[in-house]
Amino acid sequence: MKRAKKTRVVLGVTGSIAAYKAAELARYMMKRGCVVRVVMSESAEQFISPLTFESLTGQPVARSFWEETQPGAIGHIALADWADVVLVAPATADTIAKAAYGFSDSPLLAVLLATKAPIVIAPAMNVNMFEHSQTQENIHNLQARGVMFVTPESGDLACGWKGRGRLAQPAEIYHHVRRAVTPQDLRGKRVVISTGPTREAIDPVRFISNRSSGKMGLSLAVEAFHRGAEVTLVHGPLSGSPKLPSLIRTISITSADEMRSAVLTTLGRDPAHHAPDIMIMAAAVADYRPEIESDQKIKKSNAPLNIQLVSNPDILKEVGEIKGTHERPFLVGFAVETGDTEKLLSEAKRKLEAKNADLLVGNLAQDSFDKDTNKVLIVSKGGNAEEIDTARKSLIAKRIFDTVATNTRSQS
Ligand code: CTP
After folding, report:
1. What is the tens place of the pLDDT at every residue in 98-128?
2. Calpha distance 112→402 (Å, rounded)
3. What is the predicted pLDDT for the residue at 412?
4. Which atom of ligand 1 is nearest to the CA of 312?
5. Which residues, 6 or more positions from 52, have their beta carbon under 8 angstroms from its beta carbon?
6. What is the rounded CA–CA span in Å between residue 11 and residue 366?
7. pLDDT score of 14 more than 80
8. pTM tops 0.90
9. CB of 315 closer than 6 A to ligand 1?
10. Domains of the chain (ranges, CATH numbers)
11. Closest ligand 1 atom, CA of 333?
């Protein structure tokens, strides 16, 4: 199998108490296919030793203008050119201010000025310094130049204050790094994704549900975020607690009825809710619910128990029935089947028509449920079917959005 090209990250570490967290961050990124080269500010060395980063990354650490790491090369320019992305984590108020005003009196600042690669900054500082209008103005100015910021977390700060200022988690920072190096073909687009199972209550302790893990929809949400979209994820109960980018808006629901309300609300008739451009229904919505939900636990008896089931609304079909192109998002449905590929293809085609979707992704239950991988067929309106062989759900998500992009381009 062809190996994916490694992402080249220049990691700038500045003098914050959070500097030690940059070591974990470097490892986190390396585990996910990045090569990391560290540039340290002088004050960062008061908090963590360059040797730590040198040992972890296996790369020399840039510390001063006068200690060139490659003979004949101008260290900071070579680094600026080498980078696919420059990440500053943690970034102090001082570094942010200097970067905003174009100072270049340290190797890191010089890299920030010289690089053509995207820049991501993850601040960490005292809450009052972070909220100070000067810092906010500096952040705003850098954002206006395309620099991406990872909002710090709220909590107890090393200085004794409580508030926003803690360095964001490695997963959160890494999602921004991925977004920075991914072509932004969904920038400005609103994407709504439904995922996971629904639960239909029988009584206060029992429900009807299915084996869906929600992983396919989670991968789709992350992929859309990396491609620059504004993402809303409507999800049923999920196994585990996935580390989604905090900028993904999540709406947690339990029943099919709740999922329907949440999905229809995102279509928004009022100006506070902007209608989505793309909607992907990856949820395994329960087709039936008990007609009566008992408000007391149903007690055991020797007689057979009959539970009358009634149909749930078909959410995908309802969205597909919206008339006119104005409010109708580009609509992607899923079909889960048992049986063979032939049946999958014919059912995917049938559901595409029946629910008036623009694309239908078919997968077999045995290939997808509770797995990190999937194998799918993507059927488009003209009847064209693209087969994607077994791959990680993150890669399947990428291929689905590639097909969405091709189809939306041909529609506009
Ligand atoms: N779907 C939905 N609302 C439902 C049932 C399904 O929105 N009540 C959506 C799913 O999210 C999926 C598509 O419809 O995008 C197809 O779902 P699937 O379970 O494969 O098919 P069904 O329409 O339920 O038909 P069947 O169970 O008979 O195969």
Report:
1. 999 999 999 999 999 999 999 999 999 999 9
2. 32
3. 63
4. 8
5. 23
6. 42
7. yes
8. yes
9. yes
10. 7-181 (3.40.50.1950), 190-291+305-411 (3.40.50.10300)
11. 15
Ligand 1 centroid to 119 CA: how many Å?
Answer: 42
Identify the pLDDT of residue 323.
72
User: What's the gap between Cα 386 and its chain centre?
Assistant: 25
Residue range 338-355: mean pLDDT, rounded? 96
Q: Which atom of ligand 1 is nearest to the CA of 317?
A: 7
Closest CA to 110 of 79, 87, 84, 143: 79
Ligand 1 binding pocket includes 281 (Cβ within 6 Å): yes
Is the CB of 369 inside a 6 Å radius of any atom of ligand 1? no
> Is the Cβ atom of 334 under 6 angstroms away from ligand 1?
yes
The DSSP code sequence of 398-409 is: HHHHHHHHHHHH
pLDDT over 70, % of the chain: 94
Q: Is 251 helix (H, G, I), strand (E, B) or coil?
A: strand
Ligand 1 center from residue 214 Cα (angstroms): 14
What is the separation, in whole angstroms, between the first and last Cα of the chain?
A: 36
Nearest one of 364, 371, 363 to 394, comparing CA atoms: 371
CA–CA separation, 241 vs 171, rounded Å?
Answer: 13
- Is the shortest distance between the CB of 348 and ligand 1 below 6 Å? no
The answer to whether the CB of 315 falls within 8 A of the CB of 261 is no
Cα 314 to ligand 1 centroid, rounded to whole Å: 7
Catalytic residues: 159
How far does residue 103's CA lie from ligand 1's centre (Å)? 57
Our mutation pick for probing the ligand 1 site, out of 199, 216, 278, 316, counting the most ligand atoms within 8 A of Cβ, is 316
DSSP 3-state percent helix, strand, coil across the chain (nearest 5): 35, 25, 40
